[in-house]
UniProtKB/TrEMBL annotation:
Alphabetical list of InterPro entries matching this protein: AceGlu_kinase-like_sf (IPR036393), Asp/Glu/Uridylate_kinase (IPR001048), Uridylate_kinase (IPR011817), Uridylate_kinase_bac (IPR015963)
Protein name: Uridylate kinase
Family of this protein: Belongs to the UMP kinase family.
Species this protein is from: Andreprevotia lacus DSM 23236
Pathway info: Pyrimidine metabolism; CTP biosynthesis via de novo pathway; UDP from UMP (UMPK route): step 1/1
Primary role: Catalyzes the reversible phosphorylation of UMP to UDP.
GO terms under cellular component: cytosol
Positions contributing to ATP binding: 13-16, 56, 60, 163, 169, 172
Residue span, Aspartate/glutamate/uridylate kinase domain: 8-217
NCBIfam families from the UniProt entry: pyrH_bact (TIGR02075)
Enzyme Commission number(s) from the entry: 2.7.4.22
Length: 239
């Protein structure tokens, strides 16, 4: 008998940098294939999946060119990078037999549908994966904040942050080997301790709307499925 998922509708935030694999920037084909397989594992459980994709893998690659640029212009470049990732993800999903739709917060109508909340919800109800590109559509924000925002707009049961580390730590585990992972942490503590796994705007939005966030590693096989099944995996950030 198949297991029943704890969450019926999820908003999955995928780190752009995770798509690089071991490359220094861009999209690694094998890595995106593995990530799509993880997503397929939860789609096959009947879970409705909306995705916000980051842009770090492309945007950090053009960072030297962006240095010294007007901030808003650089941010629009960053948002366009997320649209490229959204298209790559959709293509990889098509290869894996997953039906998906891309909606962009910036209007690029030859490339992607514009973001329309009602239409996105309809797609989810039809069990199509919805990939949101271009973040919030506004400079000075991040795709973490877009994930919080879209999660609420989609009435998702939870926001899942799939990243390169396996949870929220007392400090950045990539810089501090003594950092300790939380099993659970409150929004107030995450904000108060300035834990940088996610930006404070995203944490504050989720706290105010009582939307929990689960943080886990997208590189750990089966971790996404375990989170969706309500098993002990990663870190739960809660009110
Ligand atoms: N307290 C902490 N706990 C866990 N990770 C932390 C913490 N502080 C900083 N980090 C770092 O935050 C990073 C989160 O990066 P991630 O790439 O998922 O974010 P992002 O900037 O939203 O994504 P993108 O690559 O799309 O820009 C982790 O790789 C980790 O090194
Ligand atoms: O709502 C948004 C989302 C993103 N940006 C810009 O895009 C890059 C890439 O996003 P990440 O969240 O870092 O993956 C970000 O650095 C911003 O420059 C934005 O302006 N508004």
């Amino acid at each position: 008998m198949s297991q029943a998922p704890k969450y019926k509708r999820i908003l999955l935030k995928l780190s752009g940098e995770a798509l690089m694999g071991d490359d220094s920037y861009g999209i690694n084909r094998a890595t995106i294939g593995r990530i799509v397989d993880e997503v397929k594992g939860v789609v096959d459980l009947g879970v409705q999946v909306a995705i916000v994709i980051g842009g770090g893998n492309i945007f950090r690659g053009v960072a030297p060119a962006a240095a010294g640029m007007d901030r808003a212009t650089a941010d629009y470049m960053g948002m366009l990078a997320t649209v490229m990732n959204a298209l790559a993800l959709q293509d990889a999903m098509r290869h894996a037999g997953i039906v998906s739709r891309v909606q962009s917060a910036l209007t690029i109508q030859q490339v992607a549908e514009p973001y329309v909340r009602g239409k996105a919800i309809r797609y989810l109800e039809e069990n199509k994966v919805v990939i949101f590109g271009a973040g919030t559509g506004n400079p000075f924000f991040t795709t973490d904040t877009a994930a919080a925002l879209r999660g609420m707009e989609m009435s998702a049961d939870i926001v899942l942050k799939a990243t390169k580390v396996d949870g929220v730590y007392t400090d950045d585990p990539k810089k501090n080997p003594d950092a300790v992972r939380y099993q659970t942490v409150t929004f107030d503590e995450a904000i108060g301790r300035n834990l940088k796994v996610m930006d404070a705007t995203a944490f504050a939005l989720c706290r105010d709307q009582k939307m929990n966030i689960a943080v886990f590693s997208i590189f750990k096989a089966g971790a996404l499925k375990r989170v969706v099944l309500g098993e002990d995996e990663g870190t739960l950030v809660h009110c």
